[in-house]
């Protein structure tokens, strides 16, 4: 893959597909609703056993921009990598087949990238996304993602160190464009694992940390069906979170990334995964407890103590698990952070959702803190 696109294609959209016939037509149709850029859509059939391939072929017959690649089942990472290898666009994008995009997402993001007076187009073009909450139920609702209005670099383009919040939240690798030449020059590929395998996590850190020029357009286009039954998020084995976190930490170590903001963002992700595991009785599972201990041993003590967005009990647990003393941690900063989070949720998604989310968050936190305190009591006895 080179920098130029001699085929005259601006954006290649890769759609890695395995048994998603229910939503695939909607996904492909949404991508086809881009009319200003020269678009290529690579529909990758990853050995589907349902009607997905027939849906792809139907789109290929009707729209010359669609090309089907039919291959044996190898998993999400291998499918995206195949699409990236065969792509001809200046930029690459990923569309998951159970999601959809608003009309003109790729038109707008490509034109935004081209609006900067740069010798070489930006490496990454990023945008927020829509959370489709409680998908396919009567309660389905569209919500702003957690970093909408919160990515505010002092200038554009920027590097991730200038705005580390970019790597603090859900990786959302699909609400972005990646310059094809950049991906090739840095030899960036997705980890190839069975199924979906949460391989988006290390890919996200790999791209963001290696990008010299990132631009951000604070408008959501991508519609992400959150925790859809049967998805990799809904079916995830808890230990996979810690494996992928270690992959992300390995990326930071390999690239010599020592920026305090990026390391704090990575630690915040660690606590998000650990908090979920603790709430689901992870401390009663010796394997999970060991994985958490190993993960937190890779986080500096000063970073753990500084994270006011994490409860004092969970921070103390992290220190104890990793064999360190746990001083008394003031709850004041954490309490203030909760108030700020409620205000943010209120301003973005309304009072009803903010109240519901706060209630669920506090219930989950109560469970985490109770288990963390129980672990601390046992540790003190020993």
Automatic annotation (TrEMBL):
InterPro entries: Glyco_trans_2-like, Nucleotide-diphossugar_trans. Residues 12-115 form the Glycosyltransferase 2-like domain. SUPFAM superfamilies: Nucleotide-diphospho-sugar transferases. It comes from the Bacteria. Its EC number is 2.4.-.-. PANTHER family: GLYCOSYLTRANSFERASE, UDP-GLCNAC:BETAGAL BETA-1,3-N-ACETYLGLUCOSAMINYLTRANSFERASE-LIKE PROTEIN 1. This is Glycosyltransferase family 2 protein. It comes from Olsenella absiana.
